[in-house]
Amino acid sequence: MAFEMKYHITTRYLGKPSKRRSGLPISPGVKFVVAHDTGNPNSTAAQNVKYYENSRDEMSASAHLFVDDREIIECIPAVEAAIPEKAWHVLYKLEADNQLFGFNANDAAIGVEYCYGDRINADEAYKKYVWLIAYICYKFGLDPASKVVGHFFLDPHRKTDPVTGLAHSRRTYDQLLRDIVSEHQACTGTAAVVPAAPFTNEHGTVTAAVKLNIRSGAPNTRAAIHQTVPPGTQLEYFLVVRDGEPVNGNPVWYGDGDGHFFWSGGVAAAA
Ligand SMILES: [Zn+2]
User: Fold this and answer.
1) Cα 34 to ligand 1 centroid, rounded to whole Å
2) Which residues surround ligand 1, an ion (CB under 5 A)?
3) What are the structural domains, with CATH classification, of the chain?
4) DSSP per-residue string spanning 89-152
5) 198 C-alpha vs ligand 1 centroid, how far in Å?
6) What separation in Å is there between the alpha carbon of 35 and the centre of ligand 1?
7) pLDDT tens, residue by residue, 170-229
């Protein structure tokens, strides 16, 4: 199984041994990926790595890779190296990583930092970030659906990354997790890429007849629930999808043009 190499990964390894790069190999192997953001809007991948290098003996904090809209830089050996090394990107004393994956993140996870901000093209940076995490999963034989976790999930009292960075890019954490799985499938060719459902642009208002789920991302019941509205809610739509997932034999879904969909069978009548 091959993986489509959409982007180049630049290696710019920090000097070792140093506080940021111990040179210790990840042991007993890469078991999961931790998604971070830099927490520093508009700082680029190159700037972050340069800062790391200049302060490599000042702090034992690091991550393996930085991604912005222009490039991907690996500064601690990870996917581009024969022997991945440890980086210090999650507090050792936390228990969530051990509970979820059986290891401390610093011993067994690759840390990937997302660069964001008004001066960074969010669409480009996000595409690279999704691709890179999918590629790391491929490289180390990890299930992309279960072996990627956000830093905030492991350290909820101190951290909000990568949720904050993704929000700057108009994306959510749930969307990131789903997009990584899709990208992994697309780049390995293990599953057909589902083409976007044909739709027509139509505008109108309908009324929810039941307690109705508004889905995020796709016109089907597997898509995440964005919102649940009570019966009687007026819902404006801007597109009609005629081959969404059939529910009770009816495949027509409405879309708000902003990535949210609801099933036409759950609404009363066009107003
Ligand atoms: Zn983090």
Assistant:
1) 8
2) 36, 151, 161
3) 9-188 (3.40.80.10), 199-270 (2.30.30)
4) -S-TT-SHHHHHHSS-HHHHEEEEEEP-STTS-HHHHHHHHHHHHHHHHHHTT--TTTSEEEHH
5) 39
6) 7
7) 999 999 999 999 999 999 988 644 445 577 888 899 999 999 999 988 888 888 899 999
